[in-house]
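Table S2 (text version). Query chain:
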Amino acid sequence: MSTFVAAVALLDLEQLGGTEHLTRAPVDLPELTASAVNPHRTAAARDHRTITVDTAPATVDVDASWIRPAIGNLVDNALRHGHGDIHHGGRPRREPAPDRHR
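Corresponding structure-token output:
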């Protein structure tokens, strides 16, 4: 079910064609990552695989309702198409905000 939700969310974002509809808010990166990864731990354990997460303590300004399914989709793909244990790590990079006047 989570794979279906992730696919629909990603398709919706692509069809919308823009980012004006996103609702960005400060989100704790380790909590966001854990909430996306944890639903996949049971499936990993059934296959005798582990998922480890190493996310830097940080607050990121994102729309969690879009990022969470995207992360979950990556983990789901790793479980389906990869082999061995899964390690998810994240270190945010500070990038300049896009010029919204273009």
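Notes on Table S2: The first helix runs from residue 2 to 16. The radius of gyration is 15 Å.
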